Amino acid sequence: MDIRQLRYFAAIAEEGQITRAAKRLHMAQPPLSYQLKTLEEEFGQSLFERNGKVMELTEAGKLLYERTNELFRWVEETMHDVQQVGEGLKGTLSIGSVKSSFSYLPSRIKKFRDDYPDIIFQLYEGDSYRIAEYLRNRDIEIGIVRLPLDLHDFHSLPLPADRFVCVLPKDSTLSDKIHLQDLAELPIMLLHRVRGIGLYELVMDTCQEHGLELNVICHCPDTSMLLTLVKSGVGAALLPLSSIPPFYSEWLTIKEIEGLHIKSESAIIWLKSRRLSKQAERFMSSIHSL
């Protein structure tokens, strides 16, 4: 049994005659009769009762006709979905992002979904090293990372540079701007990758260049953990400004650092050895157009 035979069967059921069905299908009557006989032999059931010139479905035939229509709908939907996925109008797009750069994504995902509402996003989180591994393992197609990172395997699109700020508890009594010497007196918390060189080394190296020795009491790869520690009064955090969600301003104080200018660079990356799906290509095009 194949789709072609089922289309022959459905035409006979709908026309009620072999002759009319053959005319509808633009084929001779004997081959159509043969296909019906073959189908009935395969099922071991009569699918029609001959009532004069009219052919009426048996109970088995009614069930097959019902299931055949369901199958036709499924085939049509599958063909449509495959075409839509192939054209990048439907499907799943997997993106990974470091938490400290995630603020770059929401508005772009919103804009993209306005244009392509049938594309589903699958998001992964991790530090830059982990995002790179997700890409190499082909778990995701696009990654958003903080630099520095070894980009030998990747194409990259730079994102706007981000300045570092000092984050303190809401009840902090320090002035509007924190001076370089103030940092030496504070218990400092920093982002630190699980593996590789990243923001921690960037901050520490820049401070050393200014002759400043920080009192680092905590470092971890998760921005939200550091912000929660700051809220609890454990210490101050030096973080890229874009990594701090707006709602945290209710509980925290964010201050510029006078005399210490640290810039954090981010990038969108994707594998050189992998061709992007149509969904990913459309997403990248939408970013370029903004």
From TrEMBL:
Keyword Lipid metabolism assigned: no
Record domain HTH lysR-type: where: 1-58
An annotated Gene Ontology molecular function: DNA binding
Domain of life of the source: Bacteria
Alphabetic keyword roster: DNA-binding, Transcription, Transcription regulation
Family indicated by similarity: Belongs to the LysR transcriptional regulatory family.
Protein name, per record: LysR family transcriptional regulator
